[in-house]
Amino acid sequence: MSMIDLSPPAAGQRGPVEHGVRDQIVDAARAHFSRFGYGKTTVADLAKAIGFSKAYIYKFFDSKQAIGQAICAQCLDKVLAGGEAGVVEGKSAADKFRRYFNGLISTSAELFFEDKMLYDIAAHAAEEHWPPAVAYMTSAEDRLKAIILLGRETGEFERKTPIDETCEAILLVMQSFMNPLMLKHNLDGLPEAPTKAINLVLRSLAP
Amino acid sequence: MSMIDLSPPAAGQRGPVEHGVRDQIVDAARAHFSRFGYGKTTVADLAKAIGFSKAYIYKFFDSKQAIGQAICAQCLDKVLAGGEAGVVEGKSAADKFRRYFNGLISTSAELFFEDKMLYDIAAHAAEEHWPPAVAYMTSAEDRLKAIILLGRETGEFERKTPIDETCEAILLVMQSFMNPLMLKHNLDGLPEAPTKAINLVLRSLAP
């Protein structure tokens, strides 16, 4: 780590971008949050558990939430990667659409509901509009838009509805399966329920 | 109240169907729940507040939840009435569809989010699948089916998708606005967001 990293630190992250220490803090925080819960932990608890001083942790993250955001961002990157894998596999725009949402939803369900700590953090992120949650939705919207435009080009999808209206409405009706706060109430219906919703959306896209 | 009422008591409600006393208990319970919360109240608290013995209350309701269910059923009847009023106003099947969901959603938002007590009870009902919540969804599905069938008859809606699949998928995508546990996270988007979702669903119904 002797080279100088010129990239700016992410929101809420302070000081030199020393990835080694930062990752060490995030890993230790994950372990601690998993055992004691995100809500109940303070930066002082974390410092004690890791064996760092509070001041040293504050050199890297300006609050507990900034650490939570780093964990959340890692997790949402995995969710987006689950969606991307589906897009690559899809043969047509409709197929990409279907596999994209299936990828996002199944990865979300795996991550958020097999690890209560990740769910708690994702729930805070969704409820309080944390930057990684907002960035995730922007990313999902961009990818969705690209798939819809492809389908309009290939003639698979209708072209009358303004593209932004189409994308926004799709994200609104798919939120029951994308937003962890809502997905929580839909776990019993996986994977059939999102498939039925996806089929309805694909019917709405028909030319 | 000297005439004998032959209708069977509703689930969880016991003893002779003496509406006067039953209503008196429900009204007193509403007031008490509003002040102290549904979750924290016991039947003993209620009995004390109303001035009845616990045993007397148990002659009419076999648990606190049975009283909660009576309140919930009253409330969901109002929501359904809000939807029905829309159906009556609607000129075409699409218009009835739009007004039906707008009626359900706006009445839900009014009832559940202007009175924390009603939200708490509705949330318990949705989470624990109380009979009035299940009956509400059955009722909504029946009404929806009738509107879709009308639209198929008038040629406004497509006829290829099996009707049950169509109805189920619509309720799945509209649940973000119908289920109080999910609507809670969508209040900021009212009334535009459900309108966008309804427009998407209507596109999916196009012949």
From TrEMBL, chains A, B:
Matching Pfam families, A to Z? TetR_C_27 (PF17935), TetR_N (PF00440)
**Matching InterPro entries, A to Z?**
Homeodomain-like_sf, HTH-type_TetR-like_transc_reg, HTH_TetR, Tet_transcr_reg_TetR-rel_C_sf, TetR_C_27
Q: Which GO terms describe its molecular function?
A: DNA-binding transcription factor activity; transcription cis-regulatory region binding
Mind telling me which Gene3D superfamilies this protein's record contains?
Tetracycline Repressor, domain 2 (1.10.357.10)
Chain residues forming the annotated DNA-binding region: 42-61
Q: Tell me the SUPFAM superfamilies matching this sequence.
A: Homeodomain-like, Tetracyclin repressor-like, C-terminal domain
Q: Which UniProt keywords apply?
A: DNA-binding, Transcription, Transcription regulation
Describe the location of the HTH tetR-type domain by residue ranges. Answer: 19-79
Top-level taxon: Bacteria
Protein's name in the database: TetR family transcriptional regulator
